[in-house]
Specification:
The chain is an alpha/beta fold. The chain contains 15 helices and eight strands. 49% of the residues lie in helices and 9% in strands.
Length: 386
Amino acid sequence: EQRHARADMALRRAAQRLQGVAASLTQREMGLDATRIAVASSLRGVPHRESPTPRQHQRRGMSHRPEDTVYGGPRPSEPRMTLKRLRAKYDAGERISVVTAYDYPSAVHVDMAGIDVALVGDSAAMVVHGHDTTLPITLDEMLSHCKAVSRGANRPLLVGDLPFGSYEQSSAQAIDAATRMLKEGGMDAVKLEGGSPSRVQTAKALVDSGIAVMGHVGLTPQSISVLGGFRPQGRSFETAAQVVERAMELERAGCFAIVIECVPRTVAAAVTAAVSVPTIGIGAGDGTSGQVLVYHDLLGFMQHPHHAKVTPKFCKQYANVGEVITGALARFKTEVEVGEFPGMSYSPYRVSDEDSNRLVRLLEQKGLDAAAEAVLDVRYREDGGK
């Protein structure tokens, strides 16, 4: 026993010596690192600053694209919207703007306009693919839209809709689909519809997996087979109370924001007061934290009867882009038919006179007199008829 006690004491002393040596080496290495940094800074003429302690480091805002701290390159004129900045805007009582985007051009315009959130909505099924509902669009199709938007929008927070059929079967299915949205699609967050117990459970599973989730209550277009069509919700006591309760459940599940669609202003105001996360209204009045509209709707993008059929009553049209597009296409058609376009102004490429003469001789040798005559005629017009 005395032998064991002495051995144990020796082991303890050896461990203490090793700890002392390790601490000494660590301090020496830290001192050498500081010296190297100071010397390098002095050689560059840059004043040396002590490295911050871990407590001095501040967490960056949440985003799938971290702020550049090492690599340079082009940066957006304004800081990128993150969940942290979105929350700060909400806490300051500032309204939040959200617009859908489905491709690179629309993403660029949304970015340039300074919109806070770009939502890659499953409404693409209707306004891009021409379906009557949002149900047909697939996850792979949504990913294609997400990729294009992520290339065009550098500033807004990017949120991708989980399409119908990609998350209802299980939490595992939802996590797999949402993971693809972030990894392949370049999204910052995902949105799912509904506030039933199963949807709340799915939202919580996604948040627990490290995926930011935006909720959606009121009219949920993916549920039209149950709702009986695109109909306003929350217009009775029971359904209004259900909308409020479901929004609260989604907040408890960890959703960072909640879309409220097609409900009376009073119901949307009640939801906004009941939760402590941003509410984004669409056809829900002015009592929410922000508003969202579909890109094609607010721009008046289409004149086709199909689009008129699916354009909602609550959408304000800020432009008549569809009329401009149709008019431009009609003018192009007319100018092509009368031979006005392209004309000399839009035919910038020329062959040198020497090479042109050689081409004429070659064509004549091959018996292609009409082709040689065509070359000479074009040259005559290019020279102003001289």
